[in-house]
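Extended Data, panel c. Modelled sequence:
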Amino acid sequence: MNLNNFRFDVDADGVATLTWDMPDRSMNVITQAVMDELERTIRHIMSAPEVKGCVVISGKSDFSGGADLGMLEASSHRFAKTAAEKGEEVARQEFFDGTRRLSLIYRELETSGKPWVAAIDGVCLGGAFELALACHHRIVSDNLKTRVGLPEVKVGLFPGAGGTQRVIRLMPTGDALQMLFKGEQLKANAAKAMGLVHEIAPKAELHEKARAWILAGNKGAAPWDDPKFRPPSGRVFSPTGMMIWPAANAIYRRETQDNYPAAKAILHAAFEGLQLPMDLALRVESRWFAHILGTKEARVMIRSLFVSMGELNKGARRPKAEPRAQIHKVGIIGAGFMGASIAYVAALNGIDVALIDRTMEAADTGKAHSHKLMSDQIAKGRAKTADRDALLAHIHPSDDYAVLADCDLVIEAVFEDRAVKAETIRKAQAAMKPGTIFASNTSTLPITSLAENFSKPEDFVGIHFFSPVERMMLVEVIKGAKTGDRALACALDFIRLLRKTPIVVNDSRGFYANRCVLNYVREGHLMLMEGVPAAMVENVARMAGMPVGPLALNDEVALDLAWKILQATKADLGSGAVDPAQECLLDTLVNTHGRLGRKNGKGFYDYPDKGPKHLWSGLADLQSAKLDPDTLDVEDMKQRFLVTQALEAARTVEDGVITDPREADVGSILGFGFAPFTGGTLSYIDGMGVSEFVLLCDRLAKKYGPRFAPCDLLLDMATKKETFYRHSSAA
């Protein structure tokens, strides 16, 4: 056979090996060409009497990341084109047939009559794991990096190549639904315990064990094709089933607030599919998949969380003319929580770190933070003692700036105070070798003004990490007025080494993410002071799609920090720049009651030593009015939370802070959890239509004040019927 993406061999015992190894790609992905070759291979094996069975294995360090979502995105564009040329009925049939093709190929493999074994090492996700599920036996390596799963729901889709139907027949219904809803990546042991894979073996033994299973005479038949097969939880309409499905529906609504059509489709496909023979069940799944692929939510989530994020990760905003920065050692000044966390992620990725603080004791404490984080990973089975030792060997604590002499990049993460930072920059500059890029991790202070303390402002850049650094995937790179391309490229190269997603923003107070998220927090404060019950403020924010309520979020970042930011804003821009109701609330909480947030165990919430956090009962006493929750418009409240953030995002475009809508959308989802189903702040506006968004802003402004007034950019775009993406290179 003439194959480009696979290698096909048959040994003397009649066992075929299909090695998936796509040329010019670091990761195997499912494309139209891959589907063509897989289909040809299946049919060849079916017709070849000398072939007893087939082992599918990868020629790369990972098995596969799944389908190329760009291919799925293109199918939506083809639908629109076909509908215009041949009519919607023809377009819908072609769309359905195209989106169902992979499912049919896998079913042909499953019913080929010959045994197939998936031998998995590394990552095997999405459509690739659906391929494995269609195989009759699955063996995974004991490699700590091996992961299997169906994460499609995280980009607005669901497993549409048989994943829902096979998982729901392999696992108890409740467990299967939970797995499909969460879209988590599973380690080998977990996957085996859940019944999704059959064996775990050392990587070196994978292929031989797979061959042995075929040579042992095992049949190529799926359990659900046996007429006697019964699902693990029995029939849908049974006493057991009636205990599962109502609860599953309630959990779905609690977790998604009905914002994610793909999650609802999973529920439908599983419920309906379990009542049908496999071939009909797969057809039902395919219809739901085609429906979901055509939804606005899937379109914008694929664009932001796959296409745009992939482009940014690959350096879409990196100056092309600059050579790749060689970063072997990084200096980090400030061994507090933030600096220590940056040191951890750098060391985790093999970069040497000089971790500096005022005293050796403080620097050692910063290194101890990495020891604790790695020890936690060891306790969870995600790392070994040798991994911790290797990471700690990369971190060199010191109280002497002289250790910066051989660093390729220096980052300051000291206290958020101009004078402290200026002194830090002066000391660092004296010790650094000429030409070394200097970065500030400031979250509030403009980079341009900080760069005035550096002799070569063109080599000064902002690198704003989000806390906790080890979990947050977004990093803001801030260009000061004089930041040069070399500094920008160095910052982006460093972030790529850390395997995080960068967005590039121009300098301003609060940059991009903080400007938007502070509006979200403020809206929660103002609702509370209007008399809305605190619990309702938090719950409605989550209903709107935010991961955490504004009061809980403020507790996490600290109430005294919010108070300081408010006072700094007032000092710089005047009293008209702050809302008196918000100022009064924070003043009372911080200065009267000493409630600083989670860090001292009391903020909007109380944090007892034992038991979960709970809203502070004294909040009601701070409200001069108390509104009846039954009279409040929940939809209106949800809009306030989303509009205030999206409107600020539009203002950052108007101010020139954001120059690429991809960065606004990806940054809003990764940085502060802006309702992912919208695709991000600017996609939220585009999806509604700029004219409709302006009308909504006008309505909210009349009701709640000028903070909701649409900016001039939006008014101009509405007049011209423009969108953020239509007139962007990212369209």
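The chain has three domains: 6-294, 329-508, 514-720. This feature is highlighted in the accompanying rendering.
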